[in-house]
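TEACHING EXERCISE
Course module: macromolecular assemblies
Task: Read the component lines below, then compare them to the predicted structure of the full complex.
Student: A.B.
Group: 4
Components provided:
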Amino acid sequence: MTRPGPHSRIRPAGTIQAVAFVAVVAVLPLVTGQHWLVSLLVFTVMYAGLASAWNLLGGYAGYPALGHGAFFGVGAYAMAIGTSHLGVGGGYRPFVLIVPIAVGTALVVLPIARLLLRTRAAAFAVLSITLMFMVQTLAYNIRSLTGGSSGLIVPLAPFPAATFERPFYYAMAALLALTLAVCWVVRTSKLGLALNAVRDDEDRARGLGVQTELVKLVAFAVSAGLTAAFGAVWAYYISFLYPGFAIDPLLALGAILMAFLGGRRTLWGPVVGAALIGPAQQYFAYRFGASQLYLVAYAALFLLVIYLLPEGIVPSLARRLRRLRRASPAAATHDQVATDSIFSAGDLG
Amino acid sequence: MHLFVQATIVGILFGGVYALIASGQAIIFGVTRTVNFAQAIFTILCAYLSYTLFTDFGIDPFLSILVLVPAMFAFGIGIYVLLLRRLSRSGAELGLLVLYGLGIGIQGVLDFVYKTNTQVITPSYANNSWTVAGYQIPEVRFFAFLLAVAVLGTLQLIRQRTKLGRALRATTQNPVASRLLGVDVERISAIGMGLGVAAAGAAGGVFGMILPFNGNTQYDLLSKLLSIAVLGGLLSMPGTIVAAVILGVVESVVAATISPDWSAFSFLVVLFAVLIIRPQGLFGRRLRGAL
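Instructor-supplied answer key:
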């Protein structure tokens, strides 16, 4: 659909945003040679992608998924097993595995998704996190494949020490771009409208002829597949897997926190949230270790965001801008459309 | 066969403790429509508190319940008033995330105060057991079961025979209609939350005598509580109790006959199998709504 004119899905402002975003993300790691800083960037970009992938199911479709750690872990273990058992080889070759891992996870998850999606709201939240606990138990117990609680080593990547993080960073960034592209396509297509309808009133949507089962399944599978892809890159990057870290209940919570802070159901919200929280999270972990104060700070931030910014930054800013424009009618005539799409807040469609 | 029966006995006894904790969760879900993702860490918190009361003051864990239950009742009311009440308009699903976040914060504090080594409360009778017809009955588990039955019986009496109980049940069924009929829904919800958290307070001490615990054990317990909640149908008290006892038995039998590694997992398999047939759980009704 590439109709020209004001009804086109591709708007000038959107294109500018996309180009600017790609440019910034591409240049960022070249600015600094500090390993810890680049490492922080890798994790931030990863979380931006994870939060955006979560947004597909948790935001657009409104299904409170808490178990994305399961898909992340599946991707991570698939990468580790692929590189160490299947003999894919070193260097850049493991990155090729990302595609089959993402597609495979999306397909394998379908029957489970069908089962989980029979429940809604609280029951769905509970079952999704229960699924994560199941996968974690499997990772602990199938020792021949995962090494159990003694962990699994992924062969260290043979990249030059000075720029060791760069390949991982660009892999994460490419996945983030893909995730955002998927989100954008979903938002501007009939699928997005259907997910929107599911979130507002699923029974009525079904009554009106929306294929609710199908769109929910698609959102679930795509969200899970993308999450697994990030897990795969992560596994190669940190090169050591342990069930408790690879399949972590806090992973989904982190992604949700970022989506909430930035504005769930918006395109850029999860990215904004990750850009703000990701570095802080890494800094806390670096400063205090994976220790107690880290958990307390995390919980406090979480509660603050939910109570003080329930809508998120992007929608709040958008509303403020709209109000400003209404206050000065002269400015309103300028680029109404452009400003609207910069903060494509609120609901879809 | 002997092993099987023995494991079933132990499982039923501990299933009572699960039933106690999970019933509190069901009461909370009833009045707030929020799954209490912090019920596990509340239990661990009380296990730690009775650990301190036992090691520093020599108070028996069964006696410390007299302190912990009222304290946790007040704590529950505080959480409702400070955190959940404000959310009631913007959707109860958010409350689940709030309680989850709160639970992680409490875990952080517990890890800080008590360090992360696993603890277990060991009074002098911790390892005693009676032999009845060839079967071992551990004393602690037996008394824990009696405690659970007593507390659950009291809760049931409150719910069925008192004015407060009627208001609780009415609020659970339909908050709007209850309000129209003169029920102070906010007050009743606060009390319901208090009762639910107090149930964790009653169970904390015995939990800490039976299983080794630390802050991170909350995930293990949480996954069990959530499974029980879904299998029991979230709202239903009988459903919750039945599901909890099933969990206790499945867990114990699998641990004895196959391997302790798979005991929790086997229950999750049971849960998913039931859900294929009945998405609303054993006793539940369909729920609607979204985050």
